[in-house]
Amino acid sequence: MAAISVTAANCLQVTGINEWGTAAATITAGQLVYESSSLTFALAKADAASTDDVYGIALNNASTSQPLCVQKTGTITIGGTVVQGVVYCLDDAVAGAIIPWADLTADDTDYLTIIGPGTSATVIDVELKTTSVVLPTP
Amino acid sequence: MADISVTATAVVTVSGNTVTGTAGEAIDAGEFVYKRASDSKYMLADCDATAVTSDAQSDNVVGIALCSSGASQPIKIQTSGSVTINNALTAGTVLYLSNVAGKTTATYGDLASTDWITTLGIPSVGTILALDINRTSIQKP
User: Are B65 and B29 a contacting pair, CB within 8 Å?
Assistant: First the structure.
């Protein structure tokens, strides 16, 4: 299985806390972001320790320097298909993407960042955890 | 003349006040919005008489969207100050809310008879709009 295919317009916060910031690049709803050194939101990716610290999930579309709202806790209708009970993580291959834990491939130095489990076919329970654990290379 | 062509990705605040809320429909950065009374969601503003008849607030512009949002997604709106858009403006011209939802026109003559006049501001240069939103509640004769 690959990363979740998200339709940005269908990504909606259900419950929880969100926070406004500024996009450092083009970001669409449903993508995972981290807070850069310049305190702007950039696309997270699990292949580097500098980008694996997920701050939240984008809730709107923004281009560089535009405001971006990110969800940090609670539940979210992600805008794609998920599986109840499966734990989802930050992708190591596609920036900003969400992938089932079982599909992570440690092809280089990749880090485990948990997003949370699916609670239905459409909703993820947002329980962000940057483990900093390096995935073992097969 | 047609409505001003705004590139959504080029819209960035310079200074001024903003508000946040929830979009009631798909809204792109650079489009002007009003607040729907029934659910307090932001909608595309429209000066067309039919639109105003349908929702009396539709010409009551709150501000310009600074990001792009789908229905029920969060949105941030600039209500005063200056905003950068692409180089589509002429310094010193008065901009009006268009009779096309969310859009802006610099040409009074493009407004139709019975359109409700709402002015949006005056560009200081070709890329920067100084917001000065004024709902006149006057209809074009």
Answer: yes
Chain A within 8 Å of B12 (Cβ-Cβ)? yes
pLDDT in tens, A60-96: 999 999 999 999 999 999 999 999 999 999 999 999 9
* Token duo for residue B85: 């858009």
Q: To probe the interface with A, which of B13, B25, B69 has the most A CB atoms within 10 Å?
A: B69
With CA atoms as reference, the chain A residue closest to B30 would be: A66
Judging contacts by C-beta atoms under 8 Å, the chain A residues touching residue B75 are 60
ipTM of the predicted structure? 0.90
Domain ranges (residues) in chain A: 8-134
Q: Chain A: give the shortest CA distance to residue B134, in Å.
A: 25
Residue with tokens 């996009």: A23
Query: Which structure tokens are listed for B42?
Result: 């932001």
Residue A31 backbone phi and psi in degrees, to 5: -90, 150
Q: Are A88 and A73 in contact (CB under 8 A)?
A: no
**Tokens 């109840």 — which residue?**
A84
Strands (E), chain A: 12-13, 18-22, 32-35, 41-43, 54-58, 67-71, 73-77, 87-90, 98-100, 111-117, 123-127, 129-134
Q: Which residue of chain A comes nearest to B76, CA vs CA? A: A67
CATH class of A8-134: mainly beta
Residue type, A37: S
β-strand pairing of A123-127 with A73-77: antiparallel
Report the residue of B41, B68, B83 to disrupt the A interface, i.e. the one with the largest count of A CBs within 10 Å.
Answer: B68
Q: What is the pTM of this model?
A: 0.93
Q: What's the Cα-to-Cα distance from B104 to each of A59, A83, A108, B114, B119, rounded to whole Å?
A: 26, 44, 51, 17, 9
